[in-house]
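Subject: design request, 225 residues
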């Protein structure tokens, strides 16, 4: 998953970032309301961890802007404001979950997985298309019930496409989602081509009934054969 942490307290922000990176997430951070607005205007995320008490603005207003614009990011509020009224307001304003501070990192990870299942996997722990299944929580993929050995980035690419079957994905958007913000400014995308070539070969050799096809001039699309 690609996660944006919006948190002004440096030690907590860095602790969350390190912990989530260890769990193989792509993690970006913002320290202020303005910085968060700038990132959200340019980049897309799977999940936003939102502190609503920011030094230069109200995080709930940022939440409202996200939801009113039709953005698909799941939002988990992380806040020292933990009254019942605060929680109800946050959830009614569109947050997918509300985690009061202080919290254990293990619980944060569990909340992220739970939100991901609801928003990206339809409540399932795995995503299946044709005879291919990916399990984001365990980073496992299988074809026809047999494990498909993938490198980390190969798994991330497959998982990204499995959540968006039939969608044409621009290579810059794919690079940003799997490798992180600003990678879209790279001189070329040879690293994407290399990983994609290996993934497509492994799927074909395993007898997968799905295929990630190149769409000339645009990017790639996952289709079921």
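Subject: RE: design request

Done. Sequence follows.
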């Amino acid at each position: 998953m690609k996660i944006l942490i919006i948190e002004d307290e440096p030690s907590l922000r860095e602790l969350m970032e390190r912990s989530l990176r260890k769990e193989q997430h792509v993690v970006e951070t913002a320290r202020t309301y303005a910085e968060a607005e700038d990132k959200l205007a340019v980049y897309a995320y799977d999940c936003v961890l939102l502190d609503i008490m920011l030094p230069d603005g109200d995080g709930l207003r940022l939440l409202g802007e996200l939801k009113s614009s039709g953005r698909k990011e799941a939002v988990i509020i992380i806040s020292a404001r933990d009254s019942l009224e605060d929680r109800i307001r946050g959830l009614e304003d569109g947050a997918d979950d509300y985690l009061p501070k202080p919290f254990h990192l293990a619980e944060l990870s569990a909340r992220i997985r739970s939100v991901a299942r609801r928003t990206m996997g339809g409540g399932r722990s795995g995503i299946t298309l044709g005879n291919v299944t990916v399990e984001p929580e365990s980073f496992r993929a299988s074809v026809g019930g047999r494990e498909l050995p993938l490198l980390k980035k190969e798994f991330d690419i497959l998982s990204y496409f499995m959540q968006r079957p039939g969608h044409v994905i621009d290579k810059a958007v794919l690079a940003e989602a799997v490798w992180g913000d600003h990678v879209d400014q790279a001189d070329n995308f040879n690293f994407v081509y290399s990983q994609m070539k290996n993934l497509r070969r492994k799927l074909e050799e395993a007898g997968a009934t799905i295929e990630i096809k190149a769409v000339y001039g645009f990017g790639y699309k996952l289709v079921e054969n």
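Residues 160 and 217 are 20 Å apart (CA to CA).
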